């Protein structure tokens, strides 16, 4: 039978089960579409009961498919807490991190802990909307859902909750608590003292290679404690690359991660959507974010209507050096598509699209503007005491010739390389437990690196 590590990679849209063998090669992948439900306030959220049932059924079926399960781990989105009673029973739904919450809970934390700038600096967490700073759930639950607060014994991050279903161990780990939660003091590397003032006792973080023995199908299996997906996606690079680097992970969000920049966050950086994740090595990873993919798609839709072309016409646009040179030569110092370099509601309807002769020309201008803004975001985290010489680009925009060409143009002193790693967060979740599950094996880390 094929010995495997099973990884449950739980995203907002897609829920995946991936099996990695003793060489870290992916041998099977399945995807489950689980419809959302609503919480007690009518807000859309994940159907955790269906997710739990799917996970359990999927693991039980592996032996009949010719696999010998040796290890399990979990990679999930962050900004999500789960409240349990003393018996480990779940008291809450999996609240959507976009669930609206009264701003007063966040403002009270700022006022009682040195003001917004200092509080955000210490917790390495920009002030984000709704529940994206997951720690604000604590005062919200205490004030608005008193019965849950009174009956709660364990408060877990989403990856550790999924692990606890099998292990009955109630722990946390560093990548989950270090993800814009407002809960961790990065200066002292411990929980922020406001949590104790609320009368809440949180589990001390364990290392993300921690394993517990569980029984599945009458077989002993090693179960991990889970990991936050952004930190998991960085893990293959931290383990597989031997020189300092910066990773540009593109998609709906462009997240720029510099694992070698440990300098404290400044007020300016926080105001410009810079934060610190926690690496698998328990080190801060200074990171900046830009809503690249979302803004791109919104503006492409506008251009498609203007020029009467299909929405995916941009995929056929080839890099034109002539068009780019014309745009660069007339650069007025701020992006054409956006006022003063700041995206105006993601789609700038004020721009005169008649100035462009074709969809191709307009799309080149849009990509020039978006890449400039992306580079502004990259530069927030690029410079550090440990000099970076190589930048990796991963995700969907690797295949955008205009984007890649402009990254090279704006950052000429760096070696730019593409990296196409399928399921990097799942691979990272497997890697952190690999040595303990398969101590006699060496993982095959294929990052698909190609210098551009």
Summed up, the helix count is 15
- C-alpha end-to-end distance: 41 Å
- CA radius of gyration is 23 Å
Beta-strand content? 15-25%
Task: Determine the structural class based on helices, strands and strand pairing.
Answer: alpha/beta
Mean pLDDT: 93
Q: Based on the structure given, which CATH architecture of the largest domain is correct?
A: 2-Layer Sandwich
**What is the share of helical residues?**
25-40%
Question: Main sheet?
Answer: 7 strands, mixed
CATH class of the largest domain: Alpha Beta
- The name CATH uses for the topology of the largest domain is Nucleotidyltransferase, domain 5
Residue stretches low in confidence (pLDDT < 50, at least 5 long) are none
**Strand element count:** 22
State the CATH superfamily name of the largest domain: ATPase, nucleotide binding domain
Please give the domain count: 2
Backbone shape: globular
């Amino acid at each position: 039978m094929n010995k495997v590590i099973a990884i449950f990679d739980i995203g907002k849209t897609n829920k995946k089960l991936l099996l990695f063998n003793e060489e870290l090669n992916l041998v099977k992948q399945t995807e489950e579409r689980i419809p959302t439900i609503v919480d007690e306030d009518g807000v859309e959220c994940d159907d955790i009961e269906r997710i739990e049932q799917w996970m359990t059924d999927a693991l039980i079926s592996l032996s009949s498919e010719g696999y010998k399960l040796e290890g399990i781990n979990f990679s999930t989105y962050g900004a999500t807490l789960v409240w349990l009673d003393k018996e480990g029973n779940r008291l809450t739904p999996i609240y959507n991190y976009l669930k609206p919450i009264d701003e007063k809970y966040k403002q009270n934390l700022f006022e009682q802990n040195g003001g917004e700038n200092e509080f955000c600096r210490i917790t390495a967490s920009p002030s984000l909307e709704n529940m994206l700073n997951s720690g604000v759930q604590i005062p919200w639950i205490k004030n608005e859902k008193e019965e849950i607060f009174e009956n709660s014994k364990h408060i877990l991050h989403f990856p550790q909750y999924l692990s606890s279903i099998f292990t009955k161990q109630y722990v946390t780990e560093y990548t989950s608590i270090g993800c814009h939660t407002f809960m961790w003091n990065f200066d002292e590397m411990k929980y922020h003292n406001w949590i104790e003032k609320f009368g809440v006792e949180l589990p001390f973080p364990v290392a993300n290679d921690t394993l517990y023995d569980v029984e599945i199908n009458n077989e002993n299996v090693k179960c991990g404690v889970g990991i936050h997906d952004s930190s998991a996606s960085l893990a293959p690079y931290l383990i597989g690359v031997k020189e300092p680097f910066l990773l540009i992970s593109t998609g709906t969000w462009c997240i720029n991660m510099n694992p070698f920049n440990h300098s404290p966050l400044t007020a300016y950086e926080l105001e410009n959507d810079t934060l610190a994740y926690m690496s698998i090595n328990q080190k801060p990873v200074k990171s900046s974010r830009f809503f690249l993919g979302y803004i791109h798609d919104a503006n492409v839709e506008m251009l498609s209507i203007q020029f009467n072309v299909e929405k995916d016409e941009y995929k056929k646009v080839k890099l034109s050096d002539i068009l780019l040179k014309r745009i660069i030569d007339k650069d007025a110092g701020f992006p054409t598509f956006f006022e003063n370099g700041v995206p105006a509601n993601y789609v700038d309807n004020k721009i005169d699209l008649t100035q462009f002769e074709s969809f191709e020309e307009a799309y080149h201008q849009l990509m020039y503007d978006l890449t400039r803004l992306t580079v502004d975001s990259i530069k927030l985290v690029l410079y550090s005491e440990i000099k970076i010489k190589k930048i990796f680009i991963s995700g969907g925009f690797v295949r955008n010739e205009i984007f890649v060409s402009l990254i090279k143009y704006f950052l000429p002193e760096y070696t730019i390389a593409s990296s196409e790693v399928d399921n990097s967060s799942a691979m990272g979740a497997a890697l952190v437990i690999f040595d303990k599950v398969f101590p006699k094996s060496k993982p095959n880390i294929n990052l698909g690196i190609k210098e551009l």
